[in-house]
Structures are given as C-alpha cells and as structure tokens.
Design a protein that fits this description.
Shape: globular
Number of strands: 5
Order of helices and strands: EHEHEHEHEH
Number of helices: 5
Largest sheet: 5 strands, parallel
Distance between the termini: 18 Å
Strand order of the largest sheet: 2-1-3-4-5
Structural class: alpha/beta
Length: about 140
C-alpha cells in the first residue's frame, strides 16, 4: 500500500449542532498519527466542505454528525462533492449514527461509518488506509 505523506484529511461538522468534541478528538488523533488535518469546525455547509476539499487537495473527508440529520447532510455532501469534482475523495461519517442507518450511508457512497464509541485506533487506521487508496469494508 502506497501512502502519500502525510495524508491530508479534512474534518468538519455539517449542519447546526454545536457539539464538536468528537470531531476535535478525531482531528487530534489523526494529527498524532501523522496526518495533515484541515479542520473546518462546526456549522459547515456541504458546499463549504466540498469546496475546501477541492482547494486543499485532501485525501479523505471526515464529517461528524450528532444531530440525527446524518442521511440528509451526507446526501447533500455527496452532491456538493460531485458539483466540485471531488466525488472520488472517500468520505467517512462519524457521530450519533443508529445501526439501522449505516447500510444506507454506505449505499450513498460513504467509505466508512464510525458510530459514537468507535475505537480511535480503528478510525485512524481506516482513514490512513483510505488515504492510501485502500478499500475498506466498514
């Protein structure tokens, strides 16, 4: 597996929820793992995330959603990524995601889903693997 060094990962929170502790923990864990992290913070629109992904030439997009709007917000992000020509960048979704919605997110094209409480090493391993072009079963 070839890894571009350092992997570039965009971390953002789409939507209006104001809880970003998990996204910050992931951003710091990815940084500690040697990734360059572009942290957009809270209340990002899909357009802003996709635009930043294109501008920053990231390898992976990670979004954290706690509001329950993960299906709608992810669908909006997928559309925005197509509009910006970055629909080949793997998207990872984390946060409060009910098990019943994981398959739906994967059907939308998400590369991996990490519900709250996921193992931090598993998250960073998966993101680094995705940045290297690996397919993950998650």
């Amino acid at each position: 597996m070839t890894v571009r060094h350092p992997p570039r990962v965009l971390v953002a929170k789409p939507g209006l929820d104001g809880h970003d502790r998990g996204a910050k923990v992931i951003a710091l864990a990815l940084r500690d793992r040697g990734c360059e992290v572009v942290y957009l913070g809270m209340r990002c629109t899909a357009e802003r995330i996709a635009g930043a992904a294109a501008q920053e030439d990231v390898d992976v997009i990670g979004i954290s959603i706690l509001s329950g709007a993960h299906l709608r917000l992810t669908d909006e992000l997928m559309t925005a990524c197509r509009d910006h020509g970055v629909d080949d960048i793997p998207i990872v979704v984390g946060g409060i995601v009910p098990p019943r919605d994981i398959d739906r997110l994967l059907e939308l094209g998400v590369a991996a889903v990490f519900p709250a409480g996921s193992d931090l090493n598993e998250v960073t391993d998966t993101v680094v693997a995705l940045a290297a072009g690996a397919e993950v079963a998650r």
